[in-house]
Amino acid sequence: MSLDTKTVLEALKQLREQSKDRKFSQSMELIINLRDIDVKKPEGKIQESIELPYAPTKKTKVCVIATGELALKAKKNGADLVIGNEDLESLATDKKRQKQLANNYSTFFADVRLMPLVGKTLGSTLGPRGKMPKPLPPTANIKAQMVRWGKTVDLRIRGQPVLQCAIGTEDMQDQEIAENTIAIVKRLEGRLKRGLKNISTIYLKTTMSSPVKIKL
After folding, report:
1. Buried b / exposed e across 139-177, counting CB within 10 Å, b at 16+?
2. Whole-model pTM?
3. Which end of the chain is more exposed for a tag (fewer CB within 10 A), N or C?
């Protein structure tokens, strides 16, 4: 039996009732605890990119690594930063700037022709953070890719059988947050050997609240 919208909405109602007002829009976070999973085995090393029905954040900061036409289209369509060959070369020996880049931008794209240089220059910084650029051909529809990946979250096990990600903000509609939650759980059901039986508990929380358990 899969998770249903009504159950998620009930948990969201409880979460909103117990959450205190803050001076900023808090993230809505999903925490999934797994069971009977050996994270040391290949089948237990979960790393999924899931496109959600609704973008989990209002603004995703995008960095595009490209030259020529793709760089021009990236600038035209609102990429927050566009860098080219010379920028990459200057970053190669500047670990501080590399870390700033990784911390300041959440999504990276790169012209597929530049990927070898990107990997050599930024791989050791972006790779461990799960932020390696998505390779694009020079003729790619960069606007469509930015919209798509703005709705995508990454789920990754990091040593413990726990998955956590932001699925929205508190000023989003409950129905939107519920649909994002269900999209993630359904994807995991298909990924896990025993489906929902491999999920021990699911919690929702805001940035600064205590978690609320979703009934399974």
Report:
1. ebebeebbeebbbbbebebeeebebebebbbbebebebb
2. 0.81
3. N
